Structure formats: structure tokens, C-alpha cells
Amino acid sequence: MPNRRFADGEVVMGRWPGSVLYYEVQVTSYDDVSHIYTVKYKDGTELALKESDIRSQSSFKNRKSHSSSSSPSRRSSSRSQSRSPGRPAKGRRRSSSQSREHKDDRKKIIEETNLALLVLFCLSKLNENNTPRYNGEPESMERNDTSFVILEQKSKPDLETGRGLEPYSLRPRKEEKKKEIYLEKNIFETIKKNEKASVKPKELEFGGRFGTFVLILFLPATVFYLLLMCKQDDPSLMNFPTLPTLESLWDARTFGIFLLWFFLQALFYLLPIGKVVEGLPLSNGRKLQYQINGFYAFVLTAAVIGTLLYFQFELHYLYDHFMQFAVSAAVFSLGLSIYLYIRSLRAHEEDLAPGGNSGYLIYDFFTGHELNPRIGSFDLKYFCELRPGLIGWVVINLVMLFAEMKIHNRSMPSLPMILVNGFQLLYVVDALWNEEAVLTTMDITHDGFGFMLAFGDLVWVPFVYSLQAFYLVGHPTAISWPAAAAITVLNCIGYYVFRSANSQKNNFRRNPADPKLAYLKFIPTATGKGLLVTGWWGFVRHPNYLGDIIMALAWSLPCGFNHILPYFYVIYFICLLVHREARDEHHCKQKYGLAWERYCQRVPYRIFPYIY
């Protein structure tokens, strides 16, 4: 087993993949199995390099001193000796061999320097079309055309001579225009290789293997605890509910109805209605296609529910067997997660999720091993993200509204129940109407489809998010009209922040050059994307999370203040979003490097302005 050559923390010269340019980098880690070094560039970019692509700083100093010590006269003498006809045959053979080696080496260097030359070409084009800013200039950047910055520069370079570029070039050469097409192809291939240079995650989230194992048990237990508490007359935290028998938690008919619901939504998803759009590029450059018909599925579901009500179908059955439906959904999500993990073992490496390829069974099972599992054109993750659970949430709320009227002999639902149903209906309809926006979320672009998302989409969303409506059935609350108006205004404020922030982000991601977004300023990054520093995203780093929390509070206030149980959703949502914010911070710091640090200086507050 070869010994490790460079230590962690050592500053060395790292070769930029696909070129002969060497940068000053710092070794951060070493993989004993693959013998790959992880190095960090000055701008914060991290790449995985082989040992052959890393050199000590002293080798560059020696190269420089050696070249400077050779005088022109000595080089001339060497050339004259190699051409002298009086030299022995052995010397002539050596000269011929060196000539061939030099020719092969020159050919290799010409191929390797393609990437470096294209950098100069891109910079020159950027200089012609725009007014790029370099380190040291003001951060208030105006809009540029979509471009990317690969090399960090401390001063504005001379694009004619190439002077001013920081990296070391072993053998610089003149630019050849006839190779521009070839160079352009090579640079994008290199960028794609660098993005997936390290497939396995360096850090495990959610507490690692032990933490994910605990969560697999804790999440279902939390759902059942909350539902049992809502059934009690006194749902205080100190009054622990009586545990039901295992036989009472399972009902075959209930499980059959859940399966019918799931496959009905799958049928609506497969209908050839709505538009087909492409998602964001994957690591291999491929774009998946998605059927955008979630709102049509919601309308068809409403028609089905209306038909059942017209024929006086008893929807109260769902309320009476609410716990059994939750158990059925949990069992189904567990079975689906097992299927997803088994099929992911045969998936190609480029189809695996960046954060779910740790090599640990429990961890990958929880976070999701495969990024976009599909059966033909049926995308399992995308379908579960918005359809069965989200639409089911609205159906459950409606059932709770009818259950309240039946149990309390009311001709009209209570004002708190109307507010809860109305607020949450708006949230779901907005998500389905803007279905295309979910394609840019972390759930779709980064997280794999495993137990975390399967349980969250099919169990947590419909049965925990409907907690306020379920609580009001057994614990009616009265509120005044002025209080209802104030709560409505609060919800509208939260919705406005949430929707406008998300729309701003999604429109910018889709088309940064859109003239409608010309007022937005951003910080360019090495990935080619921009970090917004004006608008909502210049106010706080995650304004959509702020809108979510405000709406969650408005959903809980109609339940009054007799018990803390209805506010579990607010507490959970704050904890969830703080955790997501921490994940986003870590992910963005690794992805954008120095640009992210500059963004954080411009936008210091994360979720709550002037607080956090």
C-alpha cells in the first residue's frame, strides 16, 4: 500500500483538471482506499485530485531557479554540440530519441493546455460583451450575461499576453483559433467531471448512522402520539395518552382504501393533460421531463369528492378510522422505501443522490440512495412530492370540517375551522398551481428518494399538517370577528412573502437574463450561477422560510391558547427550517466558496431580520 505523500493542511500546488495550470491549494483530506486527495482552492472550491496532479511548492521554485541559471551562451553551446557532425553515433541516437520524446511531449502539452486557452478566450469575450468586475472592485454588481468565472484573479489580466493570471503555466503557448470549438467542448466536460469528482458525501447529516436509525423509529412514534393526544379530552403534555392495542391499529379495509387513493392519484398523474417541462440539468448534463398537471389532478379529485357527497357517501369513516389510516400510510411508506433502496442498488453511479451514497445501509435507506427513481416515465419522487399527501391533506381537512358539524350538531362549520381550512387550502392550491417551481427545490435536485421523503410526503404532510383541523373537532374554540380578521391579515402577509420570494428565485434561476429581472443585482459565482443581493434575497438569506413560519402561526392561532398542541406545527416548522437553513448554508459554502462568504457579508440575517 503506497504511503501518503502530502499531509492534511499542507499547502501545495494543485493541477486544474484538464489543463497544465497549477494553483496554490491546501490539502483537506485523503482517502486511503481510492488514494485521492481533497484539496481546497483560495476561492473555497473543493476538488478531488490524484497524487500525480499535486506537486510541492519547492518543485516550482526549483524549476524557476534552474531555468534562470541557464545562460543563453550555454544553451547555444548545447545546441551546437547536438548538431555537430563529429559527435559519435551514440550521441546522435540519443539526440534523435530526445527529439521524438520532445515531439510527443509537445503534442501532449498542446492537448492539455486547451482548457487554459479557452479560459483566456472566454475572458476576452466576456470583456467584449460586458463589463466584468474583479476582486477589489465594488460588490454592487450590475447584471452580466450568463457566464462563469473559473479562475480567481487578484488584478485585471492582460487578455492579449495572458499576464496577470495567477496560476502557474508549465508550458504557455499561443492561442489557436481553429481549436475554439474543440476547446469549448472540453471545458464543459471538465466542469461536469469536477462537479461529480467526489460522489460520496464527506459529512453525514441527521446524526449519521445512529441518528437516522433513531429517526426511522421516532418519526412514526411522533405522528401516533400527536393523533392520540388530539383524541383526548385533556390534550396537555403531562397527560400521556392510553396506548391502543396493536390489533386496533390495523384494518385491512382501511389499507385498501389508502391503496385506492394512492393509485387514483397515480392515474391522474399519467393523464396526458398539462404541459411537459424539463428539470434542471443533472450531474451528467441530462434533463428529465416532468408532466405538470398537479392542479388538474386537484380539480379531478374535487370532482370525485363532490360526486361521493352527492351520493351521500359517508366521509365520516375517515375520521372514525383516522389512526388506522395513518398506520396504513406508514406501512405503505416503509414498503415503498424498502423497494426504493433495493432498486437503487442496481442504479448507475451517476443516478445516485449526492447525499445518499455514503455506503452505510441505514443512512442511505433513510436519506435516499437514488436521486430520481423512475418506472418508465413515472417519476416516483416527483409524484409523491405533491400528489397523494398534499391533496390528501385538503381532503382530510374537509372531512374534519364535516365531522365537526356532525358531532356538534352544527348547521355551519365554526369560524376557526373555516379559517384553518381556507388558509391551508390556499397553500396547497398555490403549490399545485406553481408546480413547476418544485423542480428547483433541494428535495428534487439534491435529496434522494428514501424513507425520509417517502414518510414525509405520505404520512407526515397529510396527518401532521392537518393537526389543527383534527384538534378543533374535539376541542371547539370561539374567536371574534376582529380576531379572525387580524389572523387573516397575518396569513396574507406570510403568503405574500413566501410566494413573491419563491417566484423571484425561480424566475432568476430559469432565466437570469430576463429583462423583467433587470433591477436585481447579484454576485457571480464559479458555477455560473448568481447569488441575489437585492429584492427579498437581499433582505434575509431565506425569505421563503420567513413566510412559511408566519403562515404556520396564522394556521395555529384559530385554535386558541388553551393547549400547546396546535402550536406543535409552528415549533416543528421553526426547527425544520432552521435545520434546512443550516443544510443550505453548508451546501452553499461548499458549492460557491468565496462568493458565498461575500454574500453572507452583504446579507447577514438568515431567516428573521435583525434577529437571526
From TrEMBL:
The chain crosses the membrane at residues 210-228, 248-271, 292-311, 323-342, 453-473, 479-498, 519-540, 560-579. It comes from the Eukaryota. Pfam families: ERG4_ERG24, LBR_tudor. PROSITE patterns: STEROL_REDUCT_1, STEROL_REDUCT_2. GO terms for cellular component: endoplasmic reticulum membrane; nuclear inner membrane. It is a multi-pass membrane protein. GO terms for biological process: cholesterol biosynthetic process. It catalyses: 4,4-dimethyl-8,14-cholestadien-3beta-ol + NADPH + H(+) = 4,4-dimethyl-5alpha-cholest-8-en-3beta-ol + NADP(+); 4,4-dimethyl-5alpha-cholesta-8,24-dien-3beta-ol + NADP(+) = 4,4-dimethyl-5alpha-cholesta-8,14,24-trien-3beta-ol + NADPH + H(+); 5alpha-cholest-8,14-dien-3beta-ol + NADPH + H(+) = 5alpha-cholest-8-en-3beta-ol + NADP(+). Residues 4-62 form the Tudor domain. Its EC number is 1.3.1.70. Belongs to the ERG4/ERG24 family. This is Delta(14)-sterol reductase LBR. The lineage of its organism: Eukaryota, Metazoa, Chordata, Craniata, Vertebrata.
